Amino acid sequence: MCVTCGCSDDAESKITNPETGEVVAMNSHEHHTHTHTLADGTVITHSHSHEHHSNNATEVAQIHAKMHGNTVTLEEKILAKNDLIAAQNRGWFKGRNILALNLVSSPGSGKTTLLTRTINDLKEKFPIYVIEGDQETSNDAQKIQETGCKVVQINTGTGCHLEAAMVERGLQQLNPPLNSIVMIENVGNLVCPALFDLGEKAKVAILSVTEGEDKPIKYPHMFRASEVMIITKIDLLPYVQFDVNRCIEYAKQVNPKMQIFQVSATTGVGLESWYEWIAVNVPSLAVQI
């Protein structure tokens, strides 16, 4: 069990190209390494190998024991390797004038529905490409593919978030062109994705009215890390107990600079403001929405 977020060390991620059916395993159970930064700033890299497990078992146990003996807080920079790759991704996006957005939320918030509606409404104006993250299945990638958008599926196995290295590999398969948009739909989770920079321009936190309006203060790290919050499924407001004003107030307490949109992907209400925000953030692609 990794102390960074609780994901299993044995998780094997894979990338699937829905167009070709090609599947690429990202990690090997035969041999894999982990890099950790301890609370005192010490960086430790160790490996797990089935073939040589007996030789390094004691070393690994000692390292893990030392790590568990330290208090690790969310504020500490324990993700140096991920941050380095994220910075490389960010430079890659910038050099190609690609707007990369990291869509984050709880499961069932309506991320995929909002994403497919956004693609269908904007695909004639902007070239949009998608990296789809889920623990298992390619169901959401198939929905996105039906829009005509190119998509790659990343399955994280027991992992609970996407990482910068996964996105880097996904981009190799996706190969988005200059002056395009890459939407990264993260694994449904409001905790760990807040810790992992992917190289995106902005995190977009999606919260549906079928959830509690106190999510921004219950999961402050995610909403603090997000530049945008989208309140979805507002067509259901007459049927649920959700205080929109209080939700916005909570979000502003956590992140006063946050842009907030209220939308319904079903009826289309509020989507124009969201689309305008997208256009403004890629000036060379900006068109009249």
Task: Please supply descriptive tags for the structure shown above.
289 residues, alpha/beta, 9-stranded mixed β-sheet
Strand order, main sheet: write it out. Answer: 2-1-7-6-8-5-9-10-11
Helix content: 25-40%
Please provide the ordered H/E string of secondary-structure elements: EEEEHHEHEHEHEEHHEHEH
How far apart, in Å, are the first and last alpha carbons?
47 Å
Task: Tell me the Rg in angstroms.
Answer: 20 Å
- Give me the secondary-structure category: alpha/beta
Shape: globular
Strand portion? 15-25%
Question: Treating each run of at least 4 consecutive H or I residues as one helix, how many helices?
Answer: 9
Total beta strands? 11
Mean pLDDT: 82
| Oligomeric assembly | single chain
Describe the sheet with the most strands.
9 strands, mixed
